[in-house]
Amino acid sequence: FLSPGTMDFIILHRFGQISEGMGNFFGFDQASMRMAFDFGLLQNLMVGIGRSTYKKELDGFIKFAPIRQSTGTHSFPATIAITAGTTMNTLPWSDPSRINFFSSRLAYYGQIIIGRKFSETFSLQLSPTMVHNNLVAKQTMSNDAFAAGIGGRVKVSKRLALTWDYSHLIYGVDKNVYNDPLSVGLDIETGGHVFQLHFSNSTGMNERAFITETTGSWEKAEIRFGFNLSRMFQIKKQKEISKE
């Protein structure tokens, strides 16, 4: 969670499939991007907004942690957070001649995050997620999709950490077309910046996109390289606690 008064400016990049070879410069000739701003409001409350080039999608979320991992008299072994978000597709209507509704552009997701820091080097989190699309391509398709996510982080040095994130599609997504999203990467801390280098079979970079629309397959080497850049800003001074 971000500290109160802190803003995290994030730029995420995802390139084309590496398997396309030199003809497409191993995917670097294609790129998708998401730009986001996350804000810390309270010690256990934060919000964020973003925009992706994929489907020219706007997104926003709010995250609240009613329980934080702690030690001592009232200790608890894990942090439990609840996230609610929405996305809006801003692409032109595929069929403008029919009656189209603004609500058809919207999708929603809810997520419960259960995370535990086992040591200074190892952290793990579980994230069951539900995605609701107001509009789906076919009447036979479900508007709701459910996935079980797991992710982890292992610090290998003071400034380097290995990361991974995987979601298993449980219901509501055609497994003949879409695949479970899996990303593995390396975080590099450089003082005020954090660089994240990763490989993924997903193009989309918000929950709706990568959970319900991942078409790439790791088995077929349909993998994309990407990197993220995160920069923290203190936009509001924290109140100093007076000492008596």
Description:
This protein is an all-beta fold and 244 residues long. It has a twelve-stranded antiparallel beta barrel. The protein is globular. The longest helix has 6 residues, at 207-212. A hairpin with a 4-residue loop joins strand 3 (45-52) and strand 4. Helices cover 2% and strands 53% of the residues. It has one helix spanning 207-212, and strands spanning 6-17, 31-42, 45-52, 57-67, 79-89, 106-117, 122-133, 144-155, 160-171, 182-190, 193-200, 224-234. The protein has one helix and twelve strands.
Task: Give the gist of this structure.
The protein has one helix spanning 207-212, and strands spanning 6-17, 31-42, 45-52, 57-67, 79-89, 106-117, 122-133, 144-155, 160-171, 182-190, 193-200, 224-234. A hairpin with a 4-residue loop joins strand 6 and strand 7.
The radius of gyration is: 19 Å
The helix-strand sequence is EEEEEEEEEEEHE
DSSP, total strands: 12
Helical proportion, percent range: under 10%
The computed structural class is mainly beta
Major β-sheet annotation: 12 strands, antiparallel, barrel
What low-confidence regions span 5 or more consecutive residues with pLDDT below 50?
Answer: none
Number of helices: 1
Secondary-structure map with pairings?
Layout: E1 6-17, E2 31-42, E3 45-52, E4 57-67, E5 79-89, E6 106-117, E7 122-133, E8 144-155, E9 160-171, E10 182-190, E11 193-200, H1 207-212, E12 224-234
Keywords summarizing the entry:
about 240 residues; single chain; mainly beta
